[in-house]
Specification:
Blueprint lengths: L1 H8 L2 E2 L8 E4 L2 E4 L6 E2 L15 H4 L9 H16 L17 H14 L10 H8 L5 H29 L1 H15 L1
Antiparallel strand pairs: 1-4, 2-3
Helix pairs in contact: 3-4
Length: 183
């Protein structure tokens, strides 16, 4: 995290963090393959390994490079390391692993770093460190809960509108009752 924090402080993004690009020098992890390093002042060309790129960049919804690209990729890298799975298997984790409290902390960390909902994803190195220390809990879960409630509400409203328009007599009855109640 220190190396990534230094890069981001200098407004440089690695853009290709993945297990193959983490080298150990005297037992200390270092970032390798720095060929895609870029500053945050350029428009992003879609480089890097697909399973380690946030969905909004893959879908073309976001084009400006940001530090969150590296945090997402680091989350996927940690997922691969602790789960033993390839990145495309995210978020599956063997239930036996989740019996270990440390693995549960890692699982919360990678879910917070790599959730498809960008608005509740980990935002910076400091937040990543807190999650790694197991300090992310209710606030992250509450954010995901609120997101789910909003999505469910929108879904139910759309379903209700479709239902009403497919049965126009109900719509007319409701309109009639509304008009009568106003007089």
């Amino acid at each position: 995290l220190d190396g990534l924090e230094h890069l981001h402080r200098e407004e440089v993004i690695h853009r290709d963090i993945k297990p193959n690009n983490i080298l150990f020098v005297r037992g200390v992890p270092k970032f390798g393959d720095i060929g895609l390093l870029d500053t945050t002042t350029h428009t992003l060309s879609l480089a890097g390994t697909q399973d380690f790129i946030p969905p909004e960049y893959l879908l073309g919804q976001e084009k400006e490079p940001a530090a969150e690209i590296d945090l997402y990729a680091l989350g996927k890298t940690l997922y691969c390391a602790f789960s033993g799975n390839e990145a495309d298997k995210f978020p599956f984790v063997d239930s036996k692993l989740l019996k270990d409290p440390d693995c549960r902390v890692f699982n919360r960390l990678v879910r917070a770093a790599c959730t498809p909902e960008r608005s509740v994803r980990l935002k910076g190195i400091a937040t990543f460190r807190q999650a790694l220390a197991g300090e992310i809990g209710w606030a992250y879960e509450f954010g995901r809960f609120l997101y789910a409630v909003v999505v469910l509400a929108v879904y139910l409203i759309v379903r209700l509108v479709r239902f009403l328009f497919s049965r126009k007599w109900i719509l007319f009855l409701l309109l009639f009752l509304f008009v009568i109640s106003q007089t």
